[in-house]
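Notes to self after the call with IL:
- keep both proteins in one doc
- input above output, always
- annotate only the second one for now

Protein 1:
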Amino acid sequence: MNAALEMEKLEFTYHDGTQALNGFSATIEEGECVGLVGPNGAGKTTLVLSLAGFLEPAAGQICVHGETLNARTLPHIRQQIGFTFHDPDDQLFMPTVLEDVCFGPLNAGRSDVEAQARCLLETLEISGLADRFPGHLSAGQKRLATLAGVLIMNPSVLVLDEPTAFLDPHARRQVIEHLRKLSPSRLIVTHDMELVLELCAKVIVISQGRNVAEGKPPGVLADAALMAAHRLEVPYSLRR
């Protein structure tokens, strides 16, 4: 398999001296769905912001399909990676859902995107929200609306930060089933261990900015000593 996303020995320290990334390395293969789990403060958000180009690691490198992320390549790489952030309100800002979904491609110079946007909303089963104000949607509807706004850009890599956070069981199930059908390589950053078991072929445990464990989710997440050592819990479905 070919690597879609490579993160090699990443280092990042904030101005207050907090070392958020401490030699973190991981690889996401083409078409692979990978879960990233870790306690609060482990470096997950810093990693996502680094992948988005909002933070620049002090050392190490990020490669997308073999192309190294830097100031020169950032515009091109941003066209290849789609992000949904922890709070969907950070991504929804237009008067209607349809306008929000169309914003990215229109801003990139594409035209006649409305038909594609409506088709995408229908695929995600939220076509009835096209003319709604995003601020009035439920948490689950917002998640799917932000996902539509990302998918319309046809990214080859998706980075999804807590895609099931704040959702009730029905909305969570909707989001999971739609994520299951996606073809791009996916990095899912989450505290939802059951989500990782359902969707991911591999899980990475990040702690104190390092990759401390990696492997198939049932094996890694069932390791009670590993989970406890990094302030995590074995998923309920794996407990004996």
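Protein 2 (the one to annotate):
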Amino acid sequence: MTTQDLIEEIHKKKTFLCIGLDVDLTKIPQHLLELEDPIFEFNKAIIDTTHDLCVSYKPNTAFYEAYGIKGWQSLQKTIIYINQNYPEIFTIADAKRGDIGNTSSMYAKAFLEDLNFDSVTVAPYMGKDSVEPFLAFENKHTILLALTSNEGAFDFQTQQVGAKELYKVVIETSKTWKNSQNLMYVVGATKADYFAEIRKIIPNSFLLVPGVGAQGGSLQEVCQYGLNANVGLLINSSRGIIYASNGSDFAQKAREEALKMQQEMAQILANCYCLINVTVLISVFDSILMK
């Protein structure tokens, strides 16, 4: 999927919601455990009831790898189901990979070619040659960990490296890598006050933003500082949507929570359009007065 495809889908659905498919067998409805593949059946129900309210799904691979080969098969079935039934959806393998070049090439092949995800999250700590193998895939995206939402982010990411914080050095350096136009970035919603600084470095890039909802991040604050002309945000919500209920109504309750976020996002987009139109009108009037 191209970036333009994603932008068009955002405007069509009036949402920039990404739903995290982080399936924990101890939290899903008990009746699903009687089925042959409870993880896939849970995902399928969530997807079928929310696909029109979001533009992206993000399975965190740890929640599948924890169940061995069966979990991996559930992940494979899930991505195949999305690609076949809802090909307009932008898919993210939240795998946080990153290793020496040859190994990264295999990781990239696994997620972007074999499983056919649109994107994969990657850790930048090992530098250029660990990330560029992911960037080599046409119309695929590498989502670089830049400033994460966890408490430990302050251990390294905000430390000074010379005159700049490390996360700024990472983002600025990544722009010099081959095929850097295929980069997106993870920026946690709990770091909303950093968005303005990040937008100075990457004004046009998409940001994947976890941490809204259960982790305490504010959607309004993120949008205030993070929105760009193409929206440029994918706001992820996992637990707050998929675990809205652990009863037989779990899929419907998930839809209700997703709808709340979609409606809030639609209003934010509408307000942005109004602001853009006012700015255009002011520019037109100024040009007329100048004559």
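Annotation: The first strand starts at residue 17 and ends at 20. Residues 250-290 form the longest helix (41 residues).
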